[in-house]
Amino acid sequence: MSDHDHEHSSVPRSVPAGPSSCARAATTKEAAFRIDYPLSAARNTRVVAFDHEAERIIRSAALLDWGQARFFSVADPGGVLSEIGASDVSLEEVMTDTNTVIMVSTSGENGAAVAAVGSLARERGIMTAGLVVTPGALTSDALFHLRPHARILLVPAEEDDLIELLRATRA
């Protein structure tokens, strides 16, 4: 075999391996691209319970340590919410500077309040999520009221799903 034939053979030549991506990341050159500031601040999440069982669920979640999350129940379906551990607040005020609204229902009560919260969130471009928590049988009313107003809908949801959703959204 001539030198010319050897150049075109299908036998691969051994090439020394370069440094791995992990090793390159430790170099000064790669460190210049490293992000060295903390993640963005917690999101201004609002959690709204639309019935008594949902309120019990969000009260439990509210006991944990959250950044900017605030928890509410329906006081007046026309536009007033009761903040857990605080006073009544207008829906307009609740939705000011809000990034995310999580709506929780177990029974389908307060359909008008769901529509008010969902419509205002849509107008303001606020991300919405709905949880139909099913302590017993799934009710179609809860699903019927939340479906048009929640971009993300967990059905059937469990109580722990609220906490996981709050963590996932950096509440």
What do these coordinates show?
The chain has helices spanning 3-7, 21-25, 28-31, 52-62, 91-94, 111-124, 140-146, 159-168, and strands at residues 45-49, 70-76, 80-83, 88-90, 100-105, 127-133, 152-157. By secondary structure, the protein is α/β, with parallel strands linked by helices. It has one domain (45-168): Tubulin/FtsZ, GTPase domain (Rossmann fold, 3-Layer(aba) Sandwich). A seven-stranded mixed β-sheet has the order 4-3-2-1-5-6-7, with helices on both faces. Strand 6, helix 7 and strand 7 (152-157) form a beta-alpha-beta unit. The longest helix has 14 residues, at 111-124. The protein is elongated, with a radius of gyration of 26 Å. The relative contact order is 0.15. The mean pLDDT is 83. It comes from Paenarthrobacter ureafaciens.
